Amino acid sequence: MLERGLEEKTYVLNLGPQHPSTHGVLRVELEMEGEFIIKADPDIGYGHRGHEHMAENRTYAQFLPNMGRVDYLHALAYNQCYCMGVEKLLELQVPERAEYIRVITAELNRLTSHFLWVGAYLMDLGAFTPFLYCFDDREQVLDLLDYLTGSRLTYCFYRFGGVPVDIDDDFTAGCRKFIQRLRGRWVDYDNLVTKNVIFIHRTRDVGVITQEQCIKYGLTGPMVRGSGIPYDIRKSEPYSAYPAFDFEIPIGERGDVMDRYLVRMREMEQSLRIIEQALDKLPAGPIMAEKIPKRLKPAAGEVYAAVETARGEFGCYIVSAGDTKPYRIKLRVPSFGNLSILPEIAVDTLVADLVAILGSIDVVVPEIDR
Amino acid sequence: MLRDNIQKALAPLQLEQVAVGDYAKTGCHLDATAAPEQMPAVAEALLSLGCFLESLTCLHYPEHFTLVYHFANFQELCRLAVHVKVPFDQEAPSISHIYPGANWYEREAYDLYGIRFTGHPDLRRILLPFDADFHPLLKKFGESPADA
Amino acid sequence: METKTGAPLIHFGLLEEALNLARANSLWPLTFGLACCAIEMMAAGAARFDLDRFGAGVFRPSPRQCDLMIVAGTISKKMGPAVVRLWEQMPAPKWVIAMGNCAISGGPFYYPDQYAIIPGADLIIPVDVYVPGCPPRPEGLIEGILVLEEKITQRGRLRKFRDVTG
User: What's the pLDDT score for residue A2?
Assistant: First the structure.
């Protein structure tokens, strides 16, 4: 801490809800002394749309499009989790080919989410070129997903029991071409961003999160992997077709912003590996389960399904009372827990560092607010 | 095995029920039922085993609220669900001094249902505007449910 | 709502047309993404769909420097006063594009028991152009901006220097 001047006065500064670097409508109330932050209090709820209330007023199938809007950047993983939960309640068996297609599309979606994060984050830090590079790569993936699903952003592609549309040779060839092109682009990203002196200075040893804080705050995703805990639901609680694939979980050492960035970049390469293996091993067969009831009325009970999204663990806790509409659906979103650590790690940082830390948490505010 | 460790740690607390769950059907390895005042002790026992609070849900039934705490662990897969019945005019004890991450979850439960937590440092609304005067997820029992 | 964007007292004819042409071709939008549509707005400003070639690529974070507010996303009741305040902070002449179904009429979140959103931006601020979609493709947003340009210049898109009938 620097020596303070003669008079010490604190003031309150509002970061948001309209701000270029808040990634949505987040408001952080900062009590500051000069450029240093004394207290940071996030104020959420500006994107509250009442998803959980809608869940109690909709049938299971009518609620499926909502899942693409909870976190629109990795919408397919959210679709997958909800479908998994309902399939467990209905005791439906998803055919293997459908599981492979779900994995391929969810991993492609993870790539788009990470690309957008890198582009937007570096724009927060003041660099405009990576934004254009990332969006260009992202558009290539969106072309593939648009070809298959018909949407670019808020997907609603999976159905209870499988997927409705099969992948064809054009899609497979497009994927392979894209993977080859992207592998050649990692060098560009390295030179432009990872080895950039300004980026290193702004992110090394900034926003350090310890493993103990990870446990106490219930953080998940790249936040804990950056701090050295190898927790990835795809490996620790395998679901869908993930047990068949060979991939690594990149972890960091220091738990600072730079480590979280490197974890996400390396995760993208692992996603490419998974997609390649899935395309190689894709089994033939049906893409929808047989005998799906026309009127979905699961037996009374509860189920908790979890998937690994780009932001962390998304859990869907469904309580059914034996009716066509759920009794309660709780969406356990990763950004909610991840953002709750901000008041603790923002103390005694500069405002510029706060922007770097807030970006590295990778929040999607409509997911926090549901 | 983590599941046995958790059962051993919860045994002295004399909870109403600690049973092995059907993971394939419900996604939880252990199901427990506890009284509201036992919750801080449960949270401390689980924190000492390195478990983290995955989720906190509130359910509204005609006679009472039910709080469902889900705990998981980074090292080994074992999910524990703790169901706590809270009568309507009673307050539940907060566990935010043990798990700081529970702070926001408890604020959310208060915001959506009106259930209060004793010992919470800052119990105010989190999702709805601060001057809202209703709790949106409270069910209206007694009205005829319309089927889709 | 009383605003000071009424008709001017003195018309300058050709000068106004020239000014409108300048305003239409260099709209400065406000970075105001609320939800999912914000991503498609960013994609419209990025490399493939380039809003810069229409002059509208200079996104400014401060409302004092903008003349176009693209309401991209659902307006929750908590956010409503902030939207109105931002609109009032923009200097005249200003325009509003309601992008996406949520900003037009509440979108997929509108149902009888909805308690949390304002179903449509035109309930709180005057809207000039509506771009439907959930989310609209970036080409849709570009079409919306071109329609707004037509509205500003009162002329057809391709023939800006001749009268357009019909």
Answer: 52
DSSP string, A317-334: EEEE-SSSS-SEEEEE-H
Range C27-153 has CATH code 3.30.70.100: no
pLDDT tens, position by position, B55-73:
999 999 988 899 999 999 8
Nearest CA-CA partner of A308 in A103, A77, A72: A77
pLDDT of residue C1: 36
User: What average pLDDT does range A121-138 have in this prediction?
Assistant: 89
Q: Domain of A338: which CATH number?
A: 1.10.645.10
Structure tokens at C140: 């849709």
Amino acid at A324: T
Closest Cα of chain A to C76: distance in Å? 6
Bridge partners of C30?
A: C60, C69
Please provide the distance, in angstroms rounded to a whole number, between the alpha carbons at the two ends of chain C. Answer: 32
Report CB contact under 8 Å: A47, C137. Answer: no
Give me the sign of the Cα torsion angle A276, A278, A283, A284: negative
Q: Is residue A3 part of a domain?
A: no
Q: How many domains does chain A have?
A: 1
pLDDT digits (tens, 9 = 90+) for C4-20: 556 667 777 788 888 88
Domains of chain B and any CATH numbers: 2-118 (3.30.460.80)
| All structural domains of chain C with their residue ranges | 27-153
CB-neighbour burial class of residue C13 (10 A; exposed 0-12, middle 13-18, buried 19+): exposed
Q: How many residues does chain C have?
A: 166
Please give the Cα distance from B45 to C118 (Å, whole number).
45
Q: CA-CA distance, B55 to B35, in Å (whole number)?
A: 18
Question: Token pair of A21, please?
Answer: 């670097």
**CB within 8 Å: C108 and A73:** no
A293 to chain B nearest CA, in Å? 15
